[in-house]
Each structure stands twice: as C-alpha cells, then as structure tokens.
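[#protein-structures] MJ: dropping Class I SAM-dependent methyltransferase here for a structure pass
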Amino acid sequence: MVKGPIFTGRTCREYIHMFNLNLKRLEDKNILDCAAGASSFTPIMHKLGFDVKAVDISYDKSPRILYQMCADHLKVLKRALSKGGSYIWKFYKDPDEMFRERLKACKIFISDYRRGRGERYIMADVRQLPFPSDSFHLVLCSHLLYIYDHRLDWKFHLDSINEMLRVSKGEVRIYPLVKEDGRKSIYLERTLENLPENVDARLERVDYIFRPSANEMLRLVKSLSAL
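AK: finished. structure tokens for Class I SAM-dependent methyltransferase:
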C-alpha cells in the first residue's frame, strides 16, 4: 500500500487529453506542471520547443530513486487495477498496456530529469511555489487535488489553488475532479465558493476518462484571453 499520492509517470498524450491542450495555442506561452511526478509531458514539450517547467516535492531525490519509486508505484497500481472495479478501459485497453506506457513515460522523464534537474525540474511544495506572481500563462495540476480529498484537507486544497493562481497570469487547469470511486470531491463546491473575484471558474468536458464521471477538468481563468 502506498501512503499519500503516488509518484507515477503519466504520458504526454494523457496530459493533452486530460487538459484539452491545443499545442498551436500554446506557442509562445510558458507552462508550469505542478506535482508533476514522472510524467513525460515536460520532457516531450521541452523537446518540441515549448517553455515548460515542472515542480514536485520529490524532485530533491536522485534519478535512480525516482525511477524506483515510479516503477514500484506503477506495480502497485497495476495490481490494484487487475482486481477489477469500475475503471473505464477506453484510453488504455487493460492494466498491462497502462503499465507499459506509463513506465515508458517514466523513462523519458528520468532521462530529461538528469539533464534538467534544478532548471526544468524544481523541488517545491505546490503550496509554496518558488516563482514570482504572474509568471506562467498556464498552470496544470494532475491527480493531486480532489482525488485525494480523504488525505489532503480543505486547507491544503485552498492554499494550493491560491498559490497556483498567484503564479499564473492566464489559467490554472486541474484534473480530475472526482475521488477514486468516481464521486465528485467534497471540496469542489467549496473551491467555487472561495475563488478571488477576478477568477472565472469553468467546468469543461475533456476527451479522457479512466474513472467513472472523471471526464471534466476545472479551468480557473484570470484573464480575458483564454488559451
């Protein structure tokens, strides 16, 4: 059993679908991925010429340790998924394919982490990001908030969202909005009730689903020029 959020390697393709990303619209925009884990989003986007950074509280560890963490957590996840449940096998056909693709994503991450540690990959808590206000056009947060509302309390959610909004000069996008069983998080409505006046909240359907009802993301828009 893994205690707390798992450190795993989601693919760049998953990110594009989870967050409805249009790469054409992201040209000349800078991006921050919060609680990025071992995703291949940052290395692939960097290779394509995008200005992208990733933060994670585990980025103080060596590449070897991070790879082992990711591989171990993916094995735990695969075993859990193989037992059945209400998962929707649309993006991946089965637990074996998910394991292979996400381990591949982890290897891509580790290769780039060795070169970009401290530059593209920065150790930080999402509640205290080491960037000036209005630093990024787009801030992403995948599989940290809402899905772990049984482990991360309301103050964690509120502080994290306010900090991501602080460093964003455009949008914050958060996915998923449901717990592991597909129920909407108890903190989603509280989020919508506690946003700054200059932030427009939008629930937007996405072309990605893995858990029941997990086909929406939250877009928090600070500017009129939405991405």
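MJ: nice. The chain has a mean pLDDT of 93.
AK: one more thing. Helices lie at 12-18, 41-47, 63-82, 95-116, 154-167, 188-193.
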